[in-house]
Amino acid sequence: MNNTFTSLLHRSDGPLTCELLREPGNFGLGQVPVQMKPDATTDMVCGYCSTGCSLRIHRRDGAATSLTPNTEYPVNLGMACPKGWEALTVLDSPDRATTPLLRDETGRRVPVDWDRAMQAFTERFKTIQAEHGQHSVAFLGTGQIATEEMAFLGALTKFGMGLLHGDGNTRQCMATSVVAYKQAFGFDAPPYTYSDFEESDVIVLIGSNLCITHPIMWERVMRNPHSPEIVVVDPRLTETGVNATQHVALSPKSDLTLLYGIARILIENGWIDTDYITAHTNGFDEFAEYVIQFTDDCVTAETGLLRSQIHRLAATIHHGKRVSFWWTMGVNQSHQGVRTAQAIINLALMTGNMGRPGTGANSITGQCNAMGSRLFSNTTSLLGGHDFTNAQHREKIAGILGIDPELVPRRNSLPYHKIMEGILSGRIRGLWVVCTNPAHSWINQSQCRDILERLDFLVVQDMYANTETAQMADLILPAAGWGEKEGTFVNSERRIAVIRKVAQAPGLVLSDFNIFKLVAHYWGCADMFEHWQSPQDVFQLLKKCSAGQPCDFTGVEDYEFLNLHGGVQWPCRDATAADLQERRLFEDGRYYHSDGRARFVFEDPRPLTERPNDNFPFILLTGRGTASQWHTQTRTRNSAVLRKLYPKDIFVEINPGDARQLQIGPDDKAVVESQRGRVLARAVLTHAVQPGQVFIPMHYQAANQLTDAVFDPHSGQPSYKACAVRIARN
Ligand SMILES: Nc1nc2c(c(=O)[nH]1)N[C@H]1C(S)=C(S)[C@@H](COP(=O)(O)OP(=O)(O)OC[C@H]3O[C@@H](n4cnc5c(=O)[nH]c(N)nc54)[C@H](O)[C@@H]3O)O[C@H]1N2
Ligand SMILES: Nc1nc2c(c(=O)[nH]1)N[C@H]1C(S)=C(S)[C@@H](COP(=O)(O)OP(=O)(O)OC[C@H]3O[C@@H](n4cnc5c(=O)[nH]c(N)nc54)[C@H](O)[C@@H]3O)O[C@H]1N2
Ligand code: SF4
Ligand SMILES: [Mo]
Predict the structure, then answer these.
(1) Whose CB has fewer CB within 10 Å in the chain, the N or C terminal residue?
(2) Are residues 74 and 43 in the same domain?
(3) pTM for this one?
């Protein structure tokens, strides 16, 4: 790397990079970053889940030594889950990518410097574009880098490199909620604040295993002083279900029918808030007419529930004064996820459970910055929750960024699964994967790998060189992780908060931000990004992009301001508004559609796409396994403490009755097979799964060898949670 471009890099990597140029072997957490004060603490939010706990990092001689959860932060009030406690440990690992790696003619991957890596990047992608068209290169991003970084990736690729297609792993996760909210409320706006967990007298959790997946939100539920009724709607008796007052173990993917049935009972009994409906919503009459057909018989047949269970749930909702509805992947990852999420929203609207403490139709987000990605990654929406297809929006954003509006695409990107189809059909030949691991996490894995193998050039930008996707890459760009760079995240309750650099990244590693800066330079579009010198600069630009939008945060001054206020929830249009520590939306009953009203949206339920049959008689559910495992495990497997807290090898949960019939004993090896793959897993016999169903955690690479590439038609989100399998003893 020559000195001209080390000077290009953002200051926070600058001195380190210069040092490293002189001593390329230099790495490890022990290195003292030059600009840090020696003994002090730094507060920053956690880099795993969307809860957004604040962690206090303790440093000695400048180097991060340990952390404790921040006791003053409004989100976690001094608590953290095992992943948070171990967040620093996983940075120091032999698996880290420490230098760019480029595949040579023999297929071997060799270490190269950044200059060579960037030349290969631009030459290969530009050649593909020249031969196959501008849009034959695409990217896949993430909900796990800083907002400033994802905005840079989205702007660089779409405005600078002229790409049209780029999506994120948030498609696997939140696309359903995004579409559901946009159609119902007029903007992608989860309305709640975490104190709602404490203020409800009825908490309905649908397809959410909060205890394991958002442990500190669950702690907030435990602090609720109103002895709340806790309803868990989940086919499995999860850790959360065990702690519920009602566990509603419906058949997989029958939620839509159940929710329409509940709506019908509420309407029949007059258990609705007519004033709220009249003042603030559209489409109720049609909805009321529509749900008449969801009789008790229809609902019991479809859901497998008893009539009494369904009526008890409806009565619980009616009797609650402050009912909050929460949903996560059991709803979003479905062939009819959007309509199911909207059926939840409909219940909240018709009972007037919106805009008041302890209420709401609340989608819980997954990744630490999925919420940042939803509004600022330039993938599904133009920066700041704008619309690529709207000329005024394009001009506004181009004006703020000082670029020609013609550079802003007029069309939306293809969604993730269509990008995969584009690769299959040969229209897309080059792919840049940033901070996601599709070769493990994407649905129907062998098909996914087959598709990725067809690429002419695959670039993977990751912290670790050994992820399943990195192993397939032609070029690996080594990225700094959480703790090694700065920026902001937005948590589930819309709280914007800061991450800081407290550790030195190993080897030649650069932050994603600086990698994007280098790409801009080598691609020849650096002029466009002359105001994007540091994450803090970009934060100021994004503030301007948010102006006038529901997610307006122009009242936030800078990173210091965020830290001083314990994070700030959007909207925050002036600095004084930041004093409010808990902020919920729709308190005035005004929604973001032009008429200010929310909409009832509904559609006929559709049958499961791959029903159990003679050949494959079981339904496979997938999801999170423990609080100490994160997704594809590239990070969490690097902590010795976390490794002790979860089973090392893949297992399958089977109902003991089914196991008896199949003559499978505890810990036997079982073969689980779908039309797409065959997986060996240790049998765990448990009544947590119903007869006819089995469960495998997604953290084990083989899980997605079984899943079926089925998508919600409105959101394009994969339906990870229901496919047909058979099981036998090995
Ligand atoms: N420890 C840990 N925490 C995490 C993560 C992690 O990897 N590890 N990942 C984060 C991310 S990105 C996300 S998106 C969230 C996910 O958070 P959750 O959605 O809470 O987690 P999952 O286990 O994927 O799915 C939740 C539940 O959906 C149920 N389910 C399956 N099918 C159906 C159905 O048809 N109807 C209903 N009602 N329920 C169904 C499953 O049995 C499962 O218990 O977790 C976040 N938190
Ligand atoms: N069967 C099944 N499959 C699922 C799910 C399921 O419930 N069932 N859930 C889906 C859901 S909700 C999600 S969100 C996805 C998650 O799927 P992925 O996004 O593929 O999972 P991660 O392991 O979080 O991948 C993140 C990658 O980014 C790297 N990384 C971490 N920090 C940084 C950074 O700062 N910079 C860069 N450049 N890289 C970094 C990590 O090493 C890792 O390789 O999985 C989906 N897949
Ligand atoms: S609950 Fe989520 S944000 Fe909080 S410490 Fe655990 S992983 Fe981090
Ligand atoms: Mo997710």
Answers:
(1) C
(2) yes
(3) 0.96
Which residue's alpha carbon is at the smallest distance from atom 23 of ligand 2? Answer: 632
Q: How many residues does the chain have?
A: 730
pLDDT in the model for residue 248: 98
For ligand 2, whether the C-beta of 416 sits within 6 Å is no
**Residues 493-506: tens digit of each pLDDT:** 999 999 999 999 99
To 10 degrees, the CA torsion angle through 647, 649, 650, 652?
A: -60
Predicted confidence band of residue 8 (pLDDT cuts 50, 70, 90): low
Cβ neighbours of residue 268 closer than 8 Å, sequence gap 6 or more? none
Amino acid at 332: N
Spatial separation of the C-alpha atoms in residues 470 and 623, rounded to whole Å: 23
Compute the Cα dihedral for 448, 453, 454, 459 and give only its sign: positive
Query: Is residue 16's pLDDT more than 80?
Result: no
Predicted confidence (pLDDT) at residue 13 exceeds the cutoff of 80: no
- Burial (CB < 10 A; 0-12, 13-18, 19+), residue 577, is middle
Q: Is 80 in the pocket of ligand 3 (CB under 6 A)?
A: yes
Across 248-267, b (16+ Cβ under 10 Å) vs e yields bbbbbbbbbbbbbbbbbbbb
Same domain flag for 300 and 439: no
For residue 291, give the CATH number of its domain: 3.40.228.10
The answer to whether residues 138 and 205 belong to one domain is no
Query: Using an 8 Å Cβ cutoff, are 599 and 283 in contact?
Result: yes
**C-alpha span between 581 and 590 (Å, rounded):** 21
Structure tokens at 406: 């013609």
Query: What pLDDT does residue 23 have?
Result: 30
Q: Is 69 in the pocket of ligand 3 (CB under 6 A)?
A: no
Give the CB-side neighbour count of residue 515, counting CA atoms within 13 A.
31
Residues 378, 166 contacting (CB under 8 angstroms): yes
> Which residue owns the Cα nearest ligand 2 atom 24?
631
Spatial strand order in the sheet of 54-60: 41-45, 54-60, 63-69
The helix (H) or strand (E) run that includes residue 266 is: helix 255-268
Ligand 1: residue of 328, 334, 719 to mutate (most ligand atoms within 8 A of CB) is 328
Same domain, 222 and 324: yes
Question: pLDDT tens digit string along 60-103?
Answer: 887 899 999 999 999 999 999 999 999 999 999 999 999 999 99
Both 272 and 233 in one domain: the answer is: yes
464 lines ligand 2 (CB under 6 A): yes
Question: Based on the structure, what is the number of domains in the chain?
Answer: 4
pLDDT in tens, 648-684: 999 999 999 999 999 999 999 999 999 999 999 999 9
* Mean pLDDT over the full length of the chain: 95
Expressed as residue numbers, the domain containing 667 is 618-729
Position 669 in a domain: yes
In this structure, the dihedral spanned by the alpha carbons of residues 379, 87, 197 and 279, taken in order and rounded to 10 degrees, is -10
Nearest CA to ligand 2 atom 27: 436
Q: Could you give the residue ranges of the DSSP H alpha helices within 554-691?
A: 559-564, 640-644, 656-662
Report residue 585 as tokens: 């939306």
Ligand 3 atom closest to the Cα of residue 47 is 8
Q: Specify the residue with its C-alpha closest to ligand 1, atom 3.
A: 213
Nearest ligand 2 atom, CA 633: 23
- HSE at residue 565, side-chain half, CA atoms within 13 A, is 26
210 lines ligand 3 (CB under 6 A): no
Tokens of 679: 């997986």
